[in-house]
Model the fold of this input.
Amino acid sequence: MISLAGRDIMHAWGKFVFTGVGLGLLIGVTLTMAGVYRGMVDDAKALLDNSGADLWVVQKDTLGPYAESSSLYDDVYRSILGISGVARAANITYLTMQVREAASEGGRDVRAMVVGVVAGGPGEPGQPSYLVSGRQITRGHYEAVADIATGFQLGQRIQIRRNHYTVVGLTRRMVSSGGDPMVFIPLKDAQEAQFLKDNDAIVQQRRRTAGNPAFNRPGVPDLLSQVIASQSTNSFVNAVLVQIKPGVTAEEVAEPIRRWKRLQVYTRTQMEGILVGKLIATSAKQIGMFLVILAIVSAAIVAFIIYTLTLGKIREIAVLKLIGTKNRTIAGMIMQQAVGLGVIGFVVGKVAASFWAPIFPKYVLLEPGDAIRGFFAVMVICVLASLLAIRAALKVDPAEAIGG
Amino acid sequence: MADNLLIGEHLAKGINIEGLRKRYGEGDTAVDALKEVNMRVAPGEVVGLVGPSGSGKSTLLKCLGAVIEPTAGRMTLGEQVIYDNGWKIGDLRALRRDKIGFVFQAPYLIPFLDVTDNVALLPMLAGHPNAESRSRALALLQALDVAHRAKAMPSQLSGGEQQRVSIARALVNRPPVILADEPTAPLDSERALAVIRILNQMALQYETAIIVVTHDEKIIPTFKRIYHIRDGKTHEEAGEGRPFE
Done:
């Protein structure tokens, strides 16, 4: 028996291909939406992976440096280093802000997550785990390592607040959970950047402090200068990243920190839960809604196309039924056409998504598993969408082929 | 003499219709489309069925084609009773496929199948292998002088060629009866007569009973027997039996 669906598709291939391309672009958008979600999850995992930490020590009753603001004294890490099972501990700050190229180099603004790290070698918690060019930060001030997504070049001068930094190294896939590329600078500079006020504000603050009789006592001449000095320094960090020794579990180290230091400690699993379950949960639901709507729209389009194509063949279907074609042969023809349309659409959609995903400003991760699931979803949608057309075809009276 | 012999010997193997009735609706709105239809067509015979619009021609054709169910009467195809106040055949679809050929006013060829497959589709639907089905189709196309267009698509054929292909499709399963619904309507006189000639040749060659529904004045004189249908009743009369040329 010949394939009626195949012959029909070959006979009107232009119509099928163009319709398939249209459907494919829609499927491409659907796959891309799934890729955006996967990219967000991957960004979150990359953020945790790249921190090089096994434990995150943060302000008590907060969700940590990525989900909520957290503030710890910058000497806390010393006491953590003394806890059994801790291999390394390092302060870290995170601040999402606009980083500017130096005015002489264009003055372009880039939204980035500025990470304050303790200068040191590879493997130090918080340091970028690898570089694609240049070197790590080795000086205490005014050096930066930037993710290549910022567009900064090696040796370029960039401005954060009022200070200028030289890009000494470039790294890759170092992004915040929101997908912003990271710029690493020395911890002291980052602490200053977090609380640095403009000159007018500093003058105002000094004037207010000097005007406060509690700080400006005639009998204590150094008090005012000490208070002002304490106001212009920042001794806080957002978190302490901890690496544990081999053979020790994260919970074994976390427990004494919680108990004796009265700080919040998160393991890798808990931190991943916060990032995926809380930070990007709303975005995930948003994308999920889009996926559902796109699936419904795709189904409606396939149903409409197949229904229209079937209505265009009512006379042929009546003739086929009159000359003895079984209902299941006619239903099979329509269903195969719908599936054929879905296959064309899926191939076009996959190619389109692979083509345009790298152009997106944020990371879009197209997973093979999603593609396979998407393929089966498209097939199911096409089969369901063809039911309307099959119903119409089966209702065709073979008598329609005979005039009168 | 030859005609009488044909009718006498083969009548029992053709199609016989006795007292066929068809009523649409019920009660006050009931319409009797067919009131008393009696027909006999022998194998190898081509008869005309003529009548004005609304006389019941199409209803009769649909009943004969097992597309709608008559209300009463009896129909036999060859020696098989297919209707006797109710269908006597379970699978009407198979009956239409294997025992009844259809030729329509427009050829209604399947546009996405080439000429050969348009004809070969019926034996394929009946379960015959593709090669055998195509071989049978090609033989018929040869007989109908359209074998040279075997690979063409229907849209590439002339009206006359399309109609010959539809005749080949009607004949390919060697049905005992062919129902032709105004097969010459879209054709000019020459081509209309050519189609009737072909139908007569095929009827004789394949021993098929052919009923041609028509009100085409050009071809009515060619029939040797004509059934007139008026107000749902048939009346038989002898035709002129003019030569086709």
Notes: The mean pLDDT of chain A is 88.
